[in-house]
Design brief:
Strand content: 15-25%
Shape: globular
Helix content: 25-40%
Largest sheet: 8 strands, mixed
CATH architecture of the domain at 127-271: 3-Layer(aba) Sandwich
Bound molecules: 5'-O-[(S)-ethoxy(hydroxy)phosphoryl]adenosine
Number of helices: 22
Structural class: alpha/beta
Mean pLDDT: 91
Length: 681
């Protein structure tokens, strides 16, 4: 196997390994010691990250590596001036990658006769540079966009999305990307919170052989914004699907018209961005009904991405890198766009669905472009696992050398299938743990350290050096190996969020206040560490679900439902699902005058599609009940409901809810069981 282990090892040996270890082969213990040193000493921690930061181009280097004077508002590379677009294009061109393919884009439509995709576009680093410069110019000169602004992108997986991302980075302007599967209401809430005056969208896109239209959703969202006092200055529309769409000629402009007449060679200087300039905000779900926006600048983020591209993906110059995530999520921000370009790779972007026209589309993409590094989600693997393996054998996947997953726990069965069938048992494979808030990968298997840290199916492996993780009990004390606890990060890391946009108090409350007297970042996950120090993340410990890898708060679903005229009350919990990991089950109490029926159910589902969006809404299981069990203080007995949907026995539930008498819990349990039973019957 030609993995770049040697080069990686060399990097470690020349830069990382203390001189005293150099005359012998480094061992697991050495690595642990090194890791530990970054935990125990701030100096070692800073030195480690500075080594990585020094590999990047800075207009001006930092005055201070880490400002920890005002926790949890940590700031990295303070005073350093950097630009993500410059790093991803100009700097790559300077390094000789001008004519190298930076982006391969494949549209979904399929030519049945020729047995190939109808559209494939390849963009060199120079193309990316030019495309994004032209857009920067248009935004700056025609629309007056300036440093410090935030633009909202509601775009599908088309090349214009990375073009616009790079274009705003060049200007020192932040983006707020809203996943194109979100509904008008969700989009409106995010636009309103961000205060964006410019929206970039498309007429529509292709998904599973159909055209999905986007612009009408924007139209609806903007009506909501208008009602709430926010008038949108411009809507830029990329023509992708060529469909009829609603149009407001004063406000809307086609992307191709906006840039027409601008010379393709136009150059816009890259702004020098310090840690005080927002590179992006990204809304994510938590335990309340209102999503919150993670905010970060460019410097520390770039350092974290660069380091993980090298350490976790073992990126080499000739790699073809494919991360299947939608750019609307953090995984797509970091590992479809910014990360792979930062290290000069060719990144692949695919518009559509993995099973169109047949469930071998992904394998055909790997073969078509000779993908060497593949990054996907367990849900997709579990879905594709159901199909005959012949579909895989039709394709040559021998170019793959690293295949990781992300987004949710991977069950050993899916991991083994992935490793065997996609990875030919001859790759580095792991489940990399991280989250929107961390910005980049935090744990995984390191290609260069494979021998020291053997693969274990299902684990999340080891933390990056320079990141200190712990599994702790309710009081914040470390749990012994094998004991489940809360997953925390105990020291700052470079790509970390810097605050929640316009909401510093919520930042403190949501992440840094869980363990009294301890400055720990609470991830919201349950995990165990095993005897070897490997982390196993088990799932969320809070009321956040991962539905097919999509993050959604149960409170968001409940607060959407409660606004439906037929709904008096609802309680949402997650149920384990063999493919999607989890699906939401909503126990719904109808208002007087409404009776449970397939029509009401269909109506509610339609409503959920309109409010939270079609992706999650289609997976929701709606269960009508007469009442939702509550504690005396009025809290929904969620753990009990969870036990019911998971089919736990009565014996398991008696101690589930604080302050609820055993008999009461049993009564509530029986009542709910009966209600569900009657419904099914
Ligand atoms: C979960 C996605 C187990 C976890 C990058 C986390 C995982 C949440 C893994 C963040 C993994 C992510 N194994 N669980 N490898 N990766 N998670 O913000 O519960 O969409 O808290 O970021 O996904 O989801 P988010």
């Amino acid at each position: 196997m030609s993995s770049g282990v040697e080069a990686y090892k060399e990097f470690f040996e020349t830069n990382i390994i203390p001189p005293s270890w150099k005359d012998r082969s480094w061992s697991k213990e050495d690595f642990r010691k090194f890791h530990q040193s970054t935990v125990e000493s701030k100096k070692a921690l800073e030195e480690w990250w500075v080594k990585w930061a020094n590999e990047l181009f800075w207009f001006k280097k930092w005055d201070k590596v880490l400002d920890d004077s005002n926790p949890p508002f940590y700031r990295w590379f303070v005073g350093g001036e950097i630009n993500l677009a410059y790093l991803d294009t100009d700097w790559q061109i300077e390094k000789g990658r001008k004519n190298k393919v930076a982006l391969i884009w494949e549209g979904e439509p399929w030519d049945e006769t020729l047995k190939q995709p109808k559209e494939v576009k390849k963009f060199t680093y120079y193309d990316l540079y030019r495309e994004s410069n032209v857009i920067s110019y248009a935004l700056k000169e025609k629309l007056g966009v300036k440093k410090g602004d935030i633009l909202t992108f509601y775009l599908p997986m088309i090349p214009e999305l990375p073009f616009y991302m790079l274009a705003v980075q060049r200007l020192g302007v932040g983006h707020s990307i809203v996943f194109s599967g979100f509904s008008a209401e969700a989009l409106a809430a995010r636009i309103l919170d961000s205060g964006s005056k410019i929206i970039v969208t498309a007429d529509g896109f292709y998904r599973r052989g159909k055209v999905v239209s986007l612009k009408p959703i924007v139209e609806e969202a903007l009506k909501i914004c208008e009602k709430n006092g926010l008038t949108i200055q411009k809507v830029i529309v990329v023509k992708r699907a060529g469909i009829d769409i609603p149009w407001n000629s004063e406000r809307d402009v086609w992307h191709h018209e906006l840039i027409s007449g601008i010379p393709p060679t136009v150059k816009v200087p890259a702004e020098r961005c310090t840690e005080s300039i927002i590179s992006h905000i990204l809304y994510t779900s938590g335990t309340t009904g209102t999503p919150k926006a993670v905010q970060r600048s460019a410097g520390g983020y770039a350092v974290g991405l660069y380091a993980t591209m090298k350490m976790i993906f073992d990126a080499k110059d000739d790699d073809i890198f494919w991360c299947t995530a939608d750019v609307g999520w953090i995984t797509g921000h970091s590992y479809v766009v910014y990360g792979p370009l930062l290290v000069g790779l060719t990144t692949v972007m695919y518009e559509g669905s993995p099973d169109y026209p047949e469930p071998d589309r992904w394998w055909s993409i790997i073969e078509r472009y000779g993908v060497t590094i593949f990054y996907t989600a367990p849900t997709a693997i579990r879905m594709l696992m159901r199909f005959p393996e012949d579909l895989i054998r039709r394709h040559d996947l021998s170019t793959l050398r690293v295949v990781h997953t992300v987004g949710e726990p991977i069950n050993p069965e899916a991991f083994n299938w992935y490793y065997k069938n996609i990875g030919r048992e001859d790759v580095v494979a792991s489940s990399t743990w991280w989250m929107t808030e961390t910005g980049h990968i935090i744990t995984g298997h390191f290609p260069g350290l494979g021998k020291l840290f053997p693969l274990k199916p299902g684990t999340n492996g080891y933390a990056l050096p320079g990141v200190t993780l712990e599994v702790v009990d309710d009081d914040g004390n470390p749990c012994p190996p094998g004991v489940r606890g809360y997953f925390v990060i105990t020291s700052p890391w470079p790509g970390m969020l810097e605050t929640l946009y316009k909401n510093p108090q919520r930042y403190i409350d949501a992440y840094w206040s869980r363990f009294k007297g301890k400055m720990y970042f609470y991830t919201g996950d349950f995990a165990v560490k095993d005897q070897d120090g490997y982390v196993w993340v088990l799932g969320r410990a809070d009321d956040v679900l991962k539905v097919a890898g999509h993050r959604i708060g149960t409170a968001e679903i409940e607060s959407a439902l409660i606004r439906h005229p037929a709904v008096a009350e609802s309680a949402c919990v997650g149920k384990t699902d063999p493919i999607k990991g989890q699906v939401p089950v909503v126990f719904t109490v109808l208002k007087k005058g409404f009776k449970p029926s397939p029509e009401v159910e269909a109506e509610i589902r339609k409503y959920l599609r309109a409010t939270i969006g079609p992706i999650v809404a289609s997976d929701v299981i709606i269960t009508f009940v007469d009442s939702v069990p509550k504690t005396r203080s009025g809290k929904i007995m969620r753990r009990l409901l969870r036990a019911v949907v998971e089919g736990a026995t009565l014996g398991d539930i008696t101690t589930l809810e604080d302050g609820v008498a055993v008999e009461e819990a049993i009564k509530a349990y029986e009542a709910i069981k009966t209600a569900i039973g009657e419904k099914k019957g």
